[in-house]
Design brief:
This protein has three helices and 15 strands. By secondary structure, it is α/β, with parallel strands linked by helices. Strand 13 and strand 14 form a beta hairpin. The longest helix has 14 residues. The protein is globular, with a radius of gyration of 21 Å.
Length: 243
């Protein structure tokens, strides 16, 4: 059907459950397509099937069964892309659940490289990435009358001044039900950029934001990734013993 629109530049299909197929079928429009928005449709395939589209500026694949991995995007792929949205079935896509903690560093590096190339990587600082509860690395929360500490199984990019990094984090609730303190319990930051020069105009902004981020590194100080279950239980016991 798409072959009947050889000059089509923009394609938008949203909230159409009766639309089925794979995005590979768009290849008949490779030389003309500039914008694709497919949302809440029964569409699958690998998003990399569109990587060599020479004029593609916007690609939004939302709530569809498309798969792939952001680590597969090379320097010559999507050469003119300005906006990108990827679904959770793509490793590194919005709301993706990781099966292995060990996969995360490379994926976050890839997302960071995308941020530099793509003007708008769909809310790149709010991708809602986390560890899947089906992961062999997963374990349950510590809950007591003094502490409810969620393991740091969420992942996000952070920024201090012009310096970028990423971290694992969770939530903590300490104290009693009537007088509880809610906070972010963060692991150490995995920096992607070097620290700005102390003489640069950005250093003051960097230092102020860094102090805010450092305050959230409390329970997991010294950990760049989630502790093992044994280490996590020890952290909980030590806090409870001090309470």
């Amino acid at each position: 059907m798409l072959a009947g629109f050889p000059l089509l530049k923009e394609l938008e299909i949203t909230h159409s459950p009766f639309i089925t197929g794979t995005i590979n079928s768009l290849r008949v429009l490779k030389d003309t397509l500039e914008k694709v928005h497919i949302e809440s449709c029964r569409v699958g395939g690998n998003f990399m099937d569109l990587a060599d589209f020479p004029h593609m500026r916007e690609l939004h694949l939302i709530d569809v069964a498309v798969t792939g991995d952001v680590r597969d995007i090379g320097e010559n792929d999507f050469p003119h892309l300005e906006q990108l949205s990827l679904p959770k079935g793509v490793v590194g896509g919005t709301d993706h659940k990781f099966l292995r903690i060990s996969d995360v560093p490379e994926v976050m590096q890839a997302i960071y490289r995308l941020k530099d190339r793509v003007l708008s990587y769909y809310e790149w600082d709010s991708l809602w990435l986390s560890l899947s509860d089906r992961s062999s690395d997963w374990y349950d929360d510590c809950i007591s009358s003094e502490l409810q500490l969620h393991p740091p199984f969420s992942v996000e990019l952070v920024q201090a001044g012009t310096r970028h990094g990423w971290r694992w984090y969770g939530r903590s609730y300490t104290g009693t039900i009537s007088h509880s303190c809610v906070g972010t319990a963060s692991c150490e930051i995995n920096w992607l950029d070097p620290e700005p020069d102390r003489e640069s105009s950005d250093y003051e902004n960097y230092e102020q934001k860094l102090q805010q981020l450092e305050q959230e590194i409390n329970f997991y100080r010294g950990y760049l990734q989630p502790p093992t279950e044994g280490e996590y239980n020890r952290i909980c016991r030590e806090f409870i013993d001090r309470s």
